[in-house]
């Protein structure tokens, strides 16, 4: 999660995040409609990328929904799936074992054994438990918004990439869950959503971390719900509960909940309550280093032909 970077009450409590996602492992797949759709759109962007990696890191794998698509796209790759919540990793491992078992039954002549099985690691994107230059591709879908120190997380992902390797990611921008913020602002003075980075700031962070040719773009996705409780319940089911440092530490209480629900219901259009998500897509390459760790320029000599 990274260490707190200041006094911003929107920074997250890493232990609360880990607990929320661990508790949501059993309900995540039923509610993660947006996460699956963004993952598909993210994957389609790799269609135009000329890269055949032999080592792939999924940073923030959740229940492992993307692992099959990554394995199908890069069948020769060694895939490592990382998540901060152990119950999520257990769900991802069970899902992967089920898929391999099905493949063996359907295609008994094909080797679907341990050699092609992903490796599962419990760890923090902000302090990755891998050596330098361990991967040719890093994939991270809707996980970076949980990082308090996003520049540090991007630097860590850069560290574990090989030269000419690719980072591809999605995260949420500042307009995300603006309805939730507006509804709670009418009720209390606590924080209720994370601090979401602007896409232009993320581009600057990538350059500062040493990435080359960053490409960043954004789209707004609006989900709608039949009632306000369904919106709040879905966020809980995927683990996206309020884990900010500035959250209330007590129970919400029935009266306050009713006021929040009423504020959300007042935003309904044609009987549906909107929830806005600003989805940021990005990718960038790891170029050869131009300076030593001490800041000295690196001069490369080649042979002319």
List keywords for this structure.
about 300 residues; alpha/beta; Rossmann fold; 7-stranded mixed beta sheet; 10 helices; 7 strands; globular
Instruction: Output the helix-strand order.
Output: HHHEHEHEEHEHHEHHE
**Annotated CATH homologous superfamily of the domain at 14-173 and 196-219 and 279-286:** Vaccinia Virus protein VP39
Biggest β-sheet, characterized? 7 strands, mixed
Helix count from the secondary structure assignment = 10
Given the helix and strand composition, which structural class is it?
Answer: alpha/beta
Which parts are unreliable, with pLDDT below 50 for 5 consecutive residues or more? Answer: 106-110
The quaternary state of the protein chains shown equals single chain
Number of strands: 7
Q: Could you give the distance between the termini?
A: 49 Å
Give the strand order, joined by hyphens, for the main sheet: 3-2-1-4-5-7-6
Helix content: 25-40%
The CATH topology of the domain at 14-173 and 196-219 and 279-286 turns out to be Rossmann fold
Shape annotation: globular
Cα Rg: 21 Å
CATH architecture of the domain at 14-173 and 196-219 and 279-286: 3-Layer(aba) Sandwich
What percentage of the residues does DSSP assign to strands (E)? Answer: 15-25%
């Amino acid at each position: 999660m990274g260490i707190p970077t200041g006094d911003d009450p929107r920074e997250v409590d890493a232990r609360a995040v880990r607990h929320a996602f661990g508790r949501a492992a059993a309900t995540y797949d039923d509610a993660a409609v947006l996460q699956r759709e963004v993952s598909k759109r993210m994957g389609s962007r790799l269609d135009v990328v000329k890269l055949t990696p032999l080592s792939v890191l999924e940073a923030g794998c959740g229940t492992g929904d993307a692992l099959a698509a990554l394995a199908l796209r890069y069948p020769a790759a060694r895939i490592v799936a990382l998540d901060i919540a152990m119950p999520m990793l257990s769900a991802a491992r069970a899902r992967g074992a089920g898929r391999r078992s099905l493949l063996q039954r359907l295609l008994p002549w094909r080797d679907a054994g341990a050699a092609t099985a992903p490796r599962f690691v419990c760890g923090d994107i902000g302090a990755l438990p891998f050596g330098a230059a361990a991967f040719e591709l890093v994939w991270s879908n809707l996980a970076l918004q949980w990082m308090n120190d996003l520049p540090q997380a991007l630097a860590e992902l850069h560290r574990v990439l090989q030269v000419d390797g690719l980072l591809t990611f999605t995260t949420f921008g500042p307009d995300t869950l603006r309805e939730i913020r507006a509804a709670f602002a009418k009720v209390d003075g606590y924080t209720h959503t994370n601090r979401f980075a602007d896409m232009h700031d993320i581009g600057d962070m990538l350059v500062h971390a040493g990435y080359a040719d960053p490409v960043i773009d954004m789209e707004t996705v609006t989900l709608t719900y039949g009632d306000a409780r369904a919106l709040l319940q879905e966020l809980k089911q995927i683990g996206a509960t309020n884990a900010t440092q500035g959250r209330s530490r007590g129970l919400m209480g029935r009266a306050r909940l009713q006021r929040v629900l009423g504020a959300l219901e007042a935003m309904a259009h044609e009987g549906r309550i909107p929830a806005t998500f600003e989805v940021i897509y990005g990718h960038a390459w790891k170029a050869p280093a131009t300076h030593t760790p001490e800041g000295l320029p690196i001069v490369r000599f080649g042979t002319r032909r």
